[in-house]
Prior knowledge:
Elements: E1 8-14, H1 17-27, E2 34-36, E3 45-52, E4 55-63, E5 70-73, H2 75-78, E6 93-96, H3 102-112, E7 117-121, H4 126-142, E8 147-150, H5 158-166, H6 173-201, H7 224-239, E9 245-255, E10 258-264, H8 272-284, E11 288-300, H9 308-319, H10 323-335, H11 355-360, H12 369-376, H13 413-429, E12 434-445, E13 448-459, E14 484-485, E15 489-496, H14 505-515, H15 523-532, E16 536-538, E17 544-546, H16 548-560, H17 568-582, H18 587-607, H19 609-623, E18 636-640, E19 648-653, E20 659-663, E21 672-674, E22 679-688, E23 698-704, E24 716-719, H20 726-735, H21 787-793, E25 795-796, E26 803-806, E27 813-818, E28 828-832, E29 840-842, E30 879-880
Amino acid sequence: xxxxxxxxxxxxxxxxxxxxxxxxxxxxxxxxxxxxxxxxxxxxxxxxxxxxxxxxxxxxxxxxxxxxxxxxxxxxxxxxxxxxxxxxxxxxxxxxxxxxxxxxxxxxxxxxxxxxxxxxxxxxxxxxxxxxxxxxxxxxxxxxxxxxxxxxxxxxxxxxxxxxxxxxxxxxxxxxxxxxxxxxxxxxxxxxxxxxxxxxxxxxxxxxxxxxxxxxxxxxxxxxxxxxxxxxxxxxxxxxxxxxxxxxxxxxxxxxxxxxxxxxxxxxxxxxxxxxxxxxxxxxxxxxxxxxxxxxxxxxxxxxxxxxxxxxxxxxxxxxxxxxxxxxxxxxxxxxxxxxxxxxxxxxxxxxxxxxxxxxxxxxxxxxxxxxxxxxxxxxxxxxxxxxxxxxxxxxxxxxxxxxxxxxxxxxxxxxxxxxxxxxxxxxxxxxxxxxxxxxxxxxxxxxxxxxxxxxxxxxxxxxxxxxxxxxxxxxxxxxxxxxxxxxxxxxxxxxxxxxxxxxxxxxxxxxxxxxxxxxxxxxxxxxxxxxxxxxxxxxxxxxxxxxxxxxxxxxxxxxxxxxxxxxxxxxxxxxxxxxxxxxxxxxxxxxxxxxxxxxxxxxxxxxxxxxxxxxxxxxxxxxxxxxxxxxxxxxxxxxxxxxxxxxxxxxxxxxxxxxxxxxxxxxxxxxxxxxxxxxxxxxxxxxxxxxxxxxxxxxxxxxxxxxxxxxxxxxxxxxxxxxxxxxxxxxxxxxxxxxxxxxxxxxxxxxxxxxxxxxxxxxxxxxxxxxxxxxxxxxxxxxxxxxxxxxxxxxxxxxxxxxxxxxxxxxxxxxxxxxxxxxxxxxxxxxxxxxxxxxxxxxxxxxxxxxxxxxxxxxxxxxxxxxxxxxxxxxxxxxxxxxxxxxxxxxxxxxxxxxxxxxxxxxxxx
Length: 911
């Protein structure tokens, strides 16, 4: 308290110079404040008078710049070769003020000697609490009689700052202990594994991303590696995906009210035979009967209040802003007083928060001001108290606007976007849900159910202001129960299963959040570290791919048996740290348990280091260069990539000698054109294709190996990879595309290798469902040709004695040739020699009376009577399609093509 009526001298310490200036300006009311220099020229001292709880005070305001102290090993353990890394799990650690912070320390010592109170204005999270105790340690060493207080605030606005100075509390030692645990665990584990893997691998491999290979650090971090693990695991899922063809029946109906698209309620089928049988049942009895009409009200609820992770995810998804940049811009907006504290896990507002006052401040905005006025108008009925997401860190409220702005002149585009997102999100979360009417119609066609749904929005409500998300949907025509109609189209369509996409930044943040990797304040730092260490790359769509280096490190640790790249271990650590902050576990207990566990992991990793070395060898041999630089591999440019629209497609020769044209944007863009395996030489020319667009598409001069191509093909060929070159297409079918097996891509079980001399089929190809052969798809299967006519026309070329048949497409002679693909090597086939004709048929299918059939195009016709005497007659504008996409007229067995029966009773079935 005061002595002799003199005011108390209060030393106030903020976490950043800008915060110190902002708080001092608010408390001094802009007048009577004196500014003087401290020992550090960046951390000035602000002096002014103020009254706290009726007590006159002389306020001195200064700041630190983040952490004042660092944790490190004792001097004799700091050098990399000073000790065995295993000793780092027990080596003494010290917390000290580094050289660049000594001026700040001197300022705190000098000012605290003449003060009675110390008030800490650090960020109100666990990290801020730890910094607060670092300040306390320095100041109390200079003046052990200091009365220490803590100010808790969430926004740099008058109301919050004045309330916090009137409600000072004591700092929380448990929060600081939790950070101490995290720092020591990360230091010991990170240093031991980083030294181990760097010294093991740095000298053995040339890392192209490092200018000086001797100084490169292959870091390991308990949060960093699980984050990398998410990226690598998704990449492996994509690489190991085997496309599988499926079939589905689609139905549309045109009426005066519009078009309705009915989806098969079975979804799709992988069994072609079953799909065709069901489809033929439907086209036999194509009349659709409405079996159910359901109408119901649907609500689209507004988002929960905004937490840090949600802010980062939405900024990445809507604006393609990285999490690191999001936090930097949010910090700027917070320090300028426009939004609340941006590092918070809380997604529910306290009942004490005056939400209407926050909305009221936004009424003057030229864009969303009118909506704010409607929200506050009881007659509009738009207001709804926000629903919480169930998270509360007890430190800060959700992120919300704290000051009105129509846009500051010094703001960047990211500042404008992020402020708009925060405001619109807040206005949305205090609004009523959007209301829609949804209609679902189910129809029965020959016992098969199809459904269509439509939605119309009745009340947009929060969607009026929350422009970042929409509630799609359209109306469908009116149907009544029992109504019958003839489908306009009824098609059997094929599709292929797709692999998942690469992880976007929003996906990665979501995975980290669910697994408990890092905190809301550190997640973006872990992601940035992966990019800085060249363990991963990020494309323009914010999607992540591992580099060869990152993938090799994960594979190596996975082979050891310890899944150090998995999130479980770190999630357990984070849980224990939270228990320390709550007082449920002791700091020493958590440290002892965790470090003993990781020490055992380290010993096993070191004893199995050969597996890490082998994994690196496999990956670097596979690419022939470092993972960070592999996408920069050169080649002659053929065209601009039509997939990513950013990089060029270049001609490359793979290590196995085969050629390909691939995108320079690899691994973000995996667009590739595989060339025939019979190419001996290839070179990009200056000639351009006059057909393919967008151009220019430079043509390639090919030289083929004579013994690997049919005799009627020229050895030299000027070709185009744009898609118009039928010669290249035919040679790919005949000769394959060389070695590109997934066996060279590591699976989670570990890397494997195969001989590059063996030809492999494209792993993305699937067997034709008609003849079970590779090299073509089912809709162009040669076995579907009418074999009886071909067999009758079979003859011999009179000039050279070669067997030939007439082409059914153009009438030219088709000569007998021999396939050279891995799955059909030695098998005979006929192929048309005419330029531009794609006719193709296997020789052994010509004599097969029970072979496939060729679907005959026909105009729209009428469907005959169905089974059970029901009329299946369709309307004149109805089109029925076969699995090949050709219109079908009349009934026909899909096995033998005979119109006198269906496939389920075909005598040739199963032969």
